[in-house]
Amino acid sequence: MKKHLILLVLLACTLASGWAQVQKKVSILGDSYSTFKGYVQPDTNFVWYPADKNDVIKLEQTWWHQFINNYGYLLEVNNSFSGSTICNTGYRKEDYSDRSFITRMDKLGNPDIILIFGGTNDSWAKSPIGEYKYANWTDKELYSFRPAMAYLLDGIRKLYPRARTYFILNSELRSEINSSVYTICTHYEIPVINLYEIDKQRSHPSISGMKSISSQVQSFLEKEALNKELEEIKSELKAIKELLKEQKEVKK
To answer: The CATH number of the domain where 142 resides is what?
Structure first.
């Protein structure tokens, strides 16, 4: 048991070091939580940060800059748009097809990692939920959250087949938004990073909240990498055991 524990500790250290050294390109598809003036693409997207009565006033304080900087990654594209919904229905039931996530999903460059941080405005705007549907979407259906969410993930997988995609789910959203995100992400095998205890000012992450988001995203990805490595080790150990067993049988 002690040997196994030492092995796990060494493995964790190796993974953390290796993860930081691999320079990957990260693209973000987000809403106001991921904006900062002068750092969204295209620059015609609406931004929220910096804003009055919120202490996030520097680029370095944003969750995504901290995450990318901590790992030495490169920002490919930050296509975030303040107030945007995943589906085409926005606030006051207005048509948001000019800014929705599904409209912008084909403009993320050539990333290795995609972080989708959305659903907040669909929840706040009380956009229609709709029904679960995973193919043959109509234009009308894309004005509801569930079909639009499925359309988004289906499109992301086809547009960026080499990228590893994660969905970041905000805290304090409507339960039907949360359950829908989990159901649809499970269908497309997209991991969900479910945020918790995010400090906010004016309903948006503060400096403390941004730091917490970055930390939670990092922890999730590192844990995933560790689990993957452990599974590979288990598979190798199993193969060695089988080989030893075969050699033992041959000696008999």
So the answer is: 3.40.50.1110
